[in-house]
Amino acid sequence: MNLEQRATLELQTEALIQAQGVASAVGSENLRPGAQEGLDAIVAEAAPQVDGRVIVVDEQGLLVADSQGPQLLGSMYARPSRPEIVTALNGRPATQIRYSTDLGMELLTTAVPIQDEGQTVGAVRITKPMADVQRETRRATLGLIAIGVAVVIAQGMLGPGPVRALGVPVRGGHAGTP
Q1: Of the candidates 73, 81, 13, which has an alpha carbon nearest to the alpha carbon of residue 43?
Q2: What is the pLDDT of residues 92-138, one digit of tens each?
């Protein structure tokens, strides 16, 4: 696995954790009649925190909340072109990179079920344009490279002792030397 793949995997994992957090905040109580105001507030607050679009669907897959506004509420979102939602409504989290024909771009999509006493009662989906994800991936990759360079510089300046304390294997008196 190269650094870019690792960074992408880390971002997908982060998106799953974020979606789980939103699903916990929504809970089944905010999917009940009369809870729309609270549901809208949760979704509106979550969108800038996750840096993406946040939607909530009910157990049938109908859109009940959207961080981009109420225009599409009531639309069927559990369809083959949105497999992550179908998977989440079947009780399993899903994250994937896919092309959106509606938007004409690649997206990182993450969906998780909202459960109540072991039953799936809805789902939360977060989407981010891949251009944004790739920008974050490059930043994470550069961070990993910077850490590696810092370890090499530290080993050169301080010798193998302090570097060994960081958990970097040092052989033959130099990091990475057989």
Answers
A1: 73
A2: 999 998 888 877 878 899 999 999 999 999 999 999 887 766 666 66
* Residue 124, SS3 per DSSP: strand
Whether the pLDDT of residue 5 is over 80: the answer is: no
Q: How far apart are CA 62 and CA 71, in angstroms?
A: 13
**What backbone phi and psi angles, to 5 degrees, belong to 164?**
-60, -35
Over residues 139-147, the mean pLDDT reads 72
Share of the chain above pLDDT 90, in %: 51
Q: Which fold has domain 3-130?
A: Beta-Lactamase (3.30.450)
- CA–CA gap between residue 35 and residue 19 (Å, rounded): 20
H runs (alpha helix) in the chain: 3-26, 36-50, 83-89, 130-158, 160-165
Q: What 3-state class would DSSP assign to 152?
A: helix
Q: CATH 3.30.450.20 occupies which residues in the chain?
A: 3-130
Structure tokens at 156: 């050169």
CA distance 20 to 23: 5
Model confidence band, residue 165 (pLDDT cutoffs 50, 70, 90): low
